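Q: My labmate handed me this sequence with no annotations at all. I'd like to see what the chain might look like in three dimensions before we decide whether it's worth expressing. Could you predict it?
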Amino acid sequence: MIRKWLSENIDNSGLVIFRVLLGLLIVAESFGAILLGWVETVFIQSKFTFNFIGFDFLQVLHGEKMYSYFFVMGIFGLLIIFGLFYRFAMIAFTIMWTTVYLIQKESYNNHYYFLILICVIMTFLPANGKLSVDAKLFPKIKQTKIPRWMPYLLIFQLAILYFYAAIAKLYPDWLDGTFSKILLNGITQRQFFLDIFNQKWFLLIYAYVGILFDLLIIPALLWKKTRKLAIIASLGFHLFNAYSLRIGIFPFLALSFIVLLYDSIPLKFLNKEEILPKNNLNIKLFIFFFVPFFIVQLILPLRHHFIKGDVLFTEEGHRLAWRMMLRERKGNLSIKIVDKKTKEYHYHNYASELTAKQIRVLSNSPDFIWQYCQKIKKETKKPISIFVECEVSINRRPYYKLIDNKIDMATAKFDYFGHNEWILLQNLN
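A: Here is what I predict for the chain of 429 residues:
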C-alpha cells in the first residue's frame, strides 16, 4: 500500500521549481558572502580558521583566493537555476560547500549543514526533467512526472530538522521564557517592543509557539485541510525570523519547500506534454543509499544523550543536532604556558592573532580551546605544558569552570564520540 502510494507518478513541477529556488538561494549565499564581507571576515582578516577536528589539511583554503572560490560556487548556483549541466553543478557545489562548512566553525549555523543535506538529496533527483537547458540539449532526460517518493525525501529531511529543533527546546530556560527574553531583547532597541518582550506572558507564548510550530508544521502542511493555514503560519514565522534574527538564507530555504507539497502545479508553461519517468522506484538507490542516509540523520542528534554531562554546558554532541538559537554562552579564558625545563611561565595573548568572533567563540567552546592549545604546542619549538582557566556563563547565569585547570592541554586527547575528562561537569539547575 505505502510502496504503491510512494511510487505513484505525480507532476514534477514542484521539484523543478524547487530546483530554481534552491539555485537562487545558492547564488545569494555565494555572492552575498563576498558582497556582504563574510568571506573577508572569515578568510581574509583571520590568520587561520577553526576547522572541524581532523580536517586541518583544509587550511590551504584561506586568504584572498576564497573570493574566487565563492564566485565559482555562485556560478554553479546559476547553472542549477537554468538546469545546465545540472547534476555536475549540484555535485560540484555540494563538495565545495561541504568544504566551506568543514573548514570553519566560527560561523556555525543550522542552514550550512542543512544545505549540504538538501544538495546531496537533490543530486540524485531528476530536477532538470523540464524547464532546463539540459532538457533542450538532451531530449532523452525530459519528463513531466516523477514518483511521489522523490519530493518526500526532501520533506522528510526538513521534518527531521523541525522535530529535533522542538525536542531541543524542552529544557528549563526555554520553557520558562528565560532564553526567549535574551533572544528577543537582542533584536531591537525600540522601547515599545522591549516593553512587550519583557512581559512574562509574551515570553511564554513565544517559547511554546516555537515548540508547537516545530512539532506540528510539517503534519499541518501535508494535510490538505490545514495546509493553507500552515502556509500562512510558515510565512509569518520564517519572515519574522529572517528580519529579526538575521540567520541567512534558512527562512527562505524552509519556505521554498512549500512547492513540494502539491502533486500538481497548474502552470501551463510547465506542463506542455506528459512524459513518464523510466523508473518509478529505484529500490537499490532507496535501500542502499537513502535508508542509511536518513538513519544517520535520525541518530546523530541523539548522541549527546549518551555522553556524560549536560550538552548545554559541555557542548559535546551539540553540532549536527539542530540545536541552534537555544542558549547564550559567554566565557572568560586565560592560557598559561609553562616551559617544562625552566618552569618559567607566561600567559598567552591569543587576542593578538584572533578575530573578535574567534575570541568570542574560543572563550567558551571546549573543542576550540583544545584545538588552539594543540596549535600553540605545534608552533612552540620547545617542550611546554599548557594549562587553561576557563569559566562559562549559560543564559546569563553565574560563571562555572569549564576546563580542568590541572590537566595539561598540550598532552590532552580529544574524544569526538564520548566525554572528554578535561571538560568539567556542572549542574546548571
